[in-house]
C-alpha cells in the first residue's frame, strides 16, 4: 500500500495559499495526501480582532479551503503587515508546535525575497521550525510565488527562480473557484493580483514546460 504524505502549507494571510499553491493543494488532496494549512495573521490589517471584516475573511477562507480539499486549519493572530514587530522566536515556536503535532513530510511556504514583510518573516519562521535535526519529519520544503509580492520585490534580494514545476492542468478550476471565494482580495485588470494575471502566470509556468497550466516553486530542501 502506498504511503500518503502529510502536507503542511504555512501562509502569512488567507488567500496566499490559493494564490501560491492552490492547484498543488488540490492535487495533493486528490492523491490522498492529508493537507494542513496554517495562517499566521487574519489578513485584515490592524483592525480589531473579531471585527466584521475579519469574520468575513475567515468564512471566505473556510469555503476556499473546502474547495481545495483541506480539512484541518490552524490560525494565529500575529499582527497583519507587522509580523516583523514580533520576536522571530515567538513566531517560530508557533510553527514548531504545528510541525510537532502534524509531523509533515512536505512543507510549502512563502519565498524569502517577497516584498511583503509578513511573507519574509513567515519564511524565516518555517525554516527555523523545520531545522534538519534528528527526528525532524520534514523532508521537502518548497516556496511558492504570490503575485503582487514576489515579482514586486527589490532585485537587490534573491530573485524567485522556479526549480520545481507542478502540473495543475486538472486542478486549475479548483484553484479558480477558491480564488473566487477571495474575490474581495482580487483586483481589476491590469494588475498583478487580477484573475487574468493569475491565469496568465499559470499558463506561462505550464507552457514553458510543455503542459497546460502549472505552479512553480523555489526549492529550499529535498532529502531523498
Any chance you could write out the topology, listing elements then pairs?
Layout: E1 6-11, H1 16-30, E2 34-39, H2 52-68, E3 72-75, H3 88-102, E4 106-110, H4 117-129, E5 140-144, E6 164-167, H5 172-181, H6 195-207, E7 214-222
Parallel strand pairs: 1-2, 1-4, 2-3, 4-5
Antiparallel strand pairs: 5-7, 6-7
Note down, in words, how this protein is organized:
This protein is 37% helix and 17% strand. It has a seven-stranded mixed β-sheet with strand order 3-2-1-4-5-7-6, sandwiched between helices. It has helices at 16-30, 52-68, 88-102, 117-129, 172-181, 195-207, and strands at 6-11, 34-39, 72-75, 106-110, 140-144, 164-167, 214-222. The protein is α/β, with parallel strands linked by helices. Strand 1, helix 1 (16-30) and strand 2 form a beta-alpha-beta unit. The chain has one domain: Rossmann fold (3-Layer(aba) Sandwich), CATH 3.40.50. The two termini are 20 Å apart. Helix 1 runs parallel beside helix 2, helix 1 (16-30) packs across helix 5 and helix 3 packs across helix 4. InterPro entries: GlcNAc_PI_deacetylase-related (IPR003737), LmbE-like_dom_sf (IPR024078). It holds the Pfam family PIG-L. GO terms for molecular function: hydrolase activity, acting on carbon-nitrogen (but not peptide) bonds, in linear amides.
Amino acid at each position: 500500500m502506498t504511503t500518503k504524505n502529510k502536507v503542511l502549507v504555512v501562509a502569512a494571510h488567507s488567500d496566499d495559499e490559493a494564490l501560491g499553491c492552490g492547484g498543488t493543494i488540490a492535487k495533493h488532496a486528490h492523491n490522498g495526501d492529508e493537507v494542513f494549512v496554517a495562517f499566521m495573521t487574519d489578513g485584515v490589517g490592524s483592525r480589531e480582532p473579531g471585527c466584521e471584516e475579519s469574520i468575513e475573511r475567515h468564512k471566505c477562507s473556510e469555503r476556499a479551503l473546502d474547495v481545495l480539499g483541506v480539512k484541518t486549519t490552524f490560525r494565529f493572530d500575529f499582527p497583519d503587515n507587522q509580523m516583523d514587530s514580533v520576536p522571530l522566536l515567538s513566531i517560530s515556536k508557533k510553527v514548531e508546535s504545528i510541525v510537532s503535532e502534524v509531523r509533515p513530510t512536505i512543507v510549502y511556504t512563502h519565498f524569502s525575497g517577497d516584498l511583503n514583510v509578513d511573507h519574509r518573516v513567515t519564511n524565516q519562521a518555517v525554516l527555523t521550525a523545520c531545522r534538519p535535526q534528528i527526528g525532524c519529519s520534514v523532508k521537502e520544503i518548497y516556496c511558492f510565488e504570490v503575485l503582487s509580492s514576489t515579482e514586486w520585490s527589490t532585485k537587490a534580494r534573491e530573485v524567485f527562480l522556479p526549480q520545481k514545476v507542478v502540473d495543475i492542468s486538472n486542478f486549475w478550476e479548483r484553484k479558480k473557484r477558491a480564488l473566487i471565494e477571495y474575490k474581495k482580495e482580487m483586483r481589476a485588470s491590469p494588475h498583478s493580483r487580477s484573475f487574468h494575471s493569475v491565469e496568465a502566470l499559470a499558463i506561462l509556468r505550464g507552457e514553458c514546460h510543455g503542459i497546460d497550466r502549472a505552479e512553480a516553486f523555489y526549492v529550499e530542501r529535498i532529502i531523498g
